[in-house]
Amino acid sequence: MATTILVIDDERSIRGSIKEILEYEKYKVLEAEDGAAGLRLAKDENIDLVFCDIKMPRMDGMEVLEGIKMLKPELPVIMISGHGNIETAVEALKKGAYDFIEKPVDLNRLLITVRNALDKSNLEAENKTLIKTIKASKNSSIIGESKPIKEVLDMIDKVADTEARVLITGPNGTGKELVAKQIHEKSSRNKSPFIEVNCAAIPSELIESELFGHEKGAFTSAIKQRKGKFEQAEGGTLFLDEIGDMSLQAQAKVLRALQENKISRVGGDKEISVNVRVLAATNKNLQQEIADGNFREDLYHRLGVILIQVPALNDRKEDIPLLVDFFLDKICAEQGITKKKIEDKALKKLAEYDWSGNIRELRNVVERLVILSSQSIVLDDIKKYVYFN
Fold first, then answer.
1. % pLDDT > 70, the chain
2. pLDDT at position 139, please?
3. Non-local CB neighbours of 123 within 8 Å, separated by 6+ positions
4. Cis-peptide, bond into residue 104, ω within 30° of zero
């Protein structure tokens, strides 16, 4: 797709000359003859760079710059003026302009500035993607050698590098989000963002804005346009955790997004194409939720192309020694202390526990033992600090 540059200037001749130069270099150029028209294009079109004149009737360039930065803070804007001075240039840069060019525009200076601005913008986008990928990768190891967890790992390997949607089920605290992250990491989308949404943690009246974004003025607190999680996950993976807690109204919109690969922001009527792989997870029995009228059957079938059931810790107790060792490494490192050892009798006692809280509960217990025990964790520490049913 060609790089698109918007030129905002009230002088037709200036717009024409800049357009001619840029189109010769194979850029796609859009024109606006005033600030208001320029802001509309910047909002509605997929713009990569803006040239904006400072002196224009009705709305001057500084106002346009402020408007663009509110709409799209990362969009580079190059200011141009035939009445330039140091004070104006400094003010423009303070307000977020990438650079300031005086008229008449020098051809070489213009092209060098364009290339540098686009390079910087691309680098920033790549850095953000890398940061998101690193965050997604962090702590995403699935620990275990039991048969149930090997079956999960085998399923991950089979489905990761496909575009199939996956529904991950299992009790709370079993690590469903780790399964989703590992699917993303092993997929061809792993260089793009992994965006997670906890549907249970977001009030029902806000879930649509969270997922699909909103336009400025869509509701009382919508003071500026905001991209939702679908747009933020562009090219990557969107993980809808606790999908069973999503309202029926939001479910309908998610279903449409999955069917058409398009969304509309709250308060807007423009359709936005999205390229996102959706993974979902729930601790609920969705078949029962469908029967009770709480979950859409058509959405269930859209999400559940592949089903992965994550086992409870009580069903894979042979993995407890490996998990305890992993948590000891991690927690002691976080505490800045030498890794503590755990004696065999203490480890055996932990395996007798009914882990209703699953791996999350085990991690909390190990952290408690690290903090409260002495040099090593012994059986008496288990009896004293772990509360069995």
1. 94
2. 44
3. none
4. yes
Task: Note whether 313 and 144 are within 8 A (CB).
Answer: no
Characterize 360-388 residue by residue with b for buried, 16 or more Cβ atoms within 10 angstroms of its Cβ, and e for exposed: ebbbebbbebbeebeeebbeebbeeeeee
Are 116 and 166 in the same domain?
no
Q: Say which CATH number the domain at 333 has.
A: 1.10.8.60
CA nearest to 67, candidates 128, 8, 12:
8
Q: Which two tokens stand for residue 109?
A: 């200076």
Number of domains in the chain: 3
* Assessment of whether the complete model's pTM goes beyond 0.90: no
Residue 127 has, within 13 A of its CA and on its CB side, a CA count of 7
Q: Give me the pLDDT at residue 29, please.
A: 95
pLDDT on residue 127: 65
Q: Does the pLDDT of residue 255 top 80, yes or no?
A: yes
Structure tokens given for 221: 């607190």
Contact between 239 and 279 under an 8 Å Cβ cutoff? The reply is: yes
Q: Model confidence over 312-360: pLDDT tens digits? A: 999 999 999 999 999 999 999 988 899 999 999 999 999 999 999 999 9
Residue 226 DSSP one-character state: B
Is residue 327 situated within a structural domain? yes
Q: What does DSSP say about strands 49-53 and 77-81: parallel, antiparallel, or unpaired?
A: parallel
Element (H, E) at 31: strand 28-32
Q: What is the pLDDT of residues 30-52, one digit of tens each?
A: 999 999 999 999 988 889 999 99
Q: Residue 83 pLDDT > 50, yes or no? A: yes
- Range list of H helices, the chain: 12-24, 35-44, 61-71, 86-94, 107-137, 147-159, 176-185, 207-212, 229-232, 248-260, 286-291, 297-303, 320-335, 344-351, 358-372, 379-385
One-letter amino acid of 103: K
Q: Which domain holds residue 320?
A: 314-385
What span, in angstroms and rounded, lies between the C-alpha atoms of 354 and 312? 11
Same domain, 88 and 201: no
Helix, strand or coil, per DSSP, at residue 2: coil
